Amino acid sequence: MLRRSFLQGTAMLAGAAATVGLGRNASASEGEFEVMRSEAEWKDMLSPLEYKVMREEGTERAFSSPLNDEKRAGMFHCKGCDLPLYSSEHKYDSGTGWPSFWQAQEGNIDTKPDRSFFMTRTECHCRRCGSHMGHIFDDGPEPTGKRHCINGVSLTFRAA
Predict the structure, then answer these.
(1) The total number of structural domains that make up the chain
(2) Burial class of residue 25, CB neighbours in 10 A (0-12, 13-18, 19+)
(3) N or C terminus: which one in the chain shows less Cβ crowding within 10 Å?
(4) Model confidence over 103-147: pLDDT tens digits?
């Protein structure tokens, strides 16, 4: 009986959270940015997975991006507007399955609180088009101690 009550209570809580939007952020398509496109324009230029990640703040599967293993010198750009975001000099293997960097190009990444999944994380997005990149954590290497855990589908890479 306790198990049934627990499951019913959990289901009710989850339903209430979904109904009132607890923990849900505004999508990346909301807000004012230097580069603005309609939803139809974004859908025309992005694959369904890219749209889900970049415009709806989704996440790609770990270890699915070829950019996780990219080791050449160069620059990682926003797939939505081509703004240079991360240098290969700041990339490292975090073992998490996503491209990770200890620093972004100065002034090109903005952040906001992400209160999804009943926790608070730091979401990062392109400052020019608002595309969701990933999250920033405090468990990275020196000198910053930060780990920018980035969805590879949000990026393009240009070798030096």
Answers:
(1) 1
(2) middle
(3) N
(4) 999 999 999 998 887 888 999 999 999 999 999 999 999 999 999
What token pair was written down for 84?
A: 């240079």
Write the single-letter amino acid at 107: G
Reduced to 3 states (helix: H, G, I; strand: E, B; else coil), residue 95 is coil
DSSP label at residue 88: G
d(CA 22, CA 114): 11
- Domain range for 100 is 33-159
Q: Is the residue at 3 inside a domain?
A: no
* Domain harbouring 63, CATH code: 2.170.150.20
Q: Is residue 95 part of a domain?
A: yes
Quick: pLDDT tens for 22-43.
333 445 546 789 999 999 999 9
Task: Identify whether 26 is part of a domain.
Answer: no
Determine, yes or no, domain membership for 45: yes
Q: How much is the pTM? A: 0.80
Q: Centre a 10 Å sphere on the Cβ of residue 16 and count the other Cβ atoms it contains.
A: 10
Reply yes or no on whether 149 is catalytic.
yes
- What is the rounded distance in angstroms from the CA atom of residue 41 to the CA atom of residue 131? 14
